[in-house]
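User: Sequence in, structure out. Go.
Assistant: Echoing your sequence, followed by the C-alpha cells.
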Amino acid sequence: MRGITRRGLLGTASAAAAASRAAAPGGKLKITKFVLHKSTLRWRDLLFVEVHTDGGIVGIGEGTCHNRVDVMEAALRWLEPYMIGQDPAGIEAQWDRMYHRLTRWRTGIILTTALSALDIALWDIEGKRLGVPVWRLLGGAIQPRYRVYFTHMNNMLRDTRPEAYAARASELASKGWTAVKFAIPQAPSERERIQWAVAVLSAIRKAVGDRLDIGLELFETCTTRSALRIAEAVKPFDPMFIEEPLPRENPFAFGELAAKSPVPVATGEGLLSRHEFRPLLDARGAAIIQPDVVKCSGITEMRKIANLAEVYGVEVAPHQCYGPVAHVASLAAVSVIKNFFIHEWEGDDDALYQELTSGKYPVQKDGTVALPEAPGLGIDVDFEQLVRRFPYRRKL
C-alpha cells in the first residue's frame, strides 16, 4: 500500500477549497495516480481508493469486497494505467470505457466493484471541481432527509434470548431509530428456527410496539416452501420485509414466492447491473430491490437500476454496510429517485465515521439522515487514522 501525505488527503475544508480554486470550473484535469487503503473493521475488510489529479483535487471511492480485498486491490492496479492521463470529467464516457471497451470480460463481482470504486471517485472529483455536492450534479435531491434503518442489530449481541433482542430494540428506539434489521439464524430444524423468530419478534413488539419497523434477513438459506412458511409465521408481527430468502440466481423462484408471500420480499444486493435486475423485475420477484453502490457498477449504474425499478412499481432500499465513502455515495445515488423506500445504515459505526470525517458524516436524527452539503461526496476521510487503528488482517 502506498503512503500519502496529509496534503494528499485533503483532510480539511480549506484544503478542499484550495484544490477547487486550483482547478477552475470547466478546467480540464488529468488523473495522475491511485492511492489505496485497506482496513479490517470488525467483520469487514474495507478498501478505499484515492484518485489523484494534476489540479490537486483528490476523489475518493470505495471498493470493499469482504474476503476479496487483495483481489480488488489487484483489479484496481490493473485499471490504474488505463486511467492515468485521462480527464476524470465526462463520467458517463469513462464508465462506458471501463465497462465496455477495456475488456469484453466485463461482468463479475471483482470488475464491477473496481468500476464502482472509480465511478464513485470520479463523481467526487467532478463535484469538487465544480464546487457542488454530487447529489446536485445528479439533478438535486427530491426530499430533504432520507429514512434509514439500523442494520445488523444483533451483531453486537452475544445473548440470543428474546429479552436481549427486546432490550436492544428498546435502546435503538430511544436513540431515534424508527427501523431495524436482524438475521434469523439457522437452527437444527426448520421448526426451531421459526419458533425462535416468533419468540424474538413477539418480545420486540411487546417492548416497543409499532415504533420500529423490522426487516428480517434470511441470507439465501431457504427454499420457496420454507421461505413461505417463515413469512406466514412472522406475518402477525408486521415485518417490513424478508430479505434474500432464496439464492439470488433464481429470479423465477422469487416470482413464485413473492406472489404468495404475505410479507414483502426484498433482494438484489448481489446483482451487478440493470441487466441482472431485469429478470428479477420481469418475474415480479420483489417488492423492494436492494442495489449496492459498491457492487452494482457505481453511482452511474445504481441510478439507472432505480429508474428501471420505478417502471415496475418496485421500491428501492439500498444495501449498505461498508465504509463511510460507500454510505454517502449510495445516499447521493438515491437522492434523485422517486421510488426510494429506506436506506440500510451501519449504525454501530456512526461515531467512528463521524470522527474520521471531522463530523461531516451524516448523523441519524428521528430515523433519518440529511445529505452532506460540501462539494463532491461531502466528506473527506482520515485514512491514515483508520488504517492505524484498524489495520488490515488478511484471512487465509
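User: And one key feature?
Assistant: The two ends are 19 Å apart (CA to CA).
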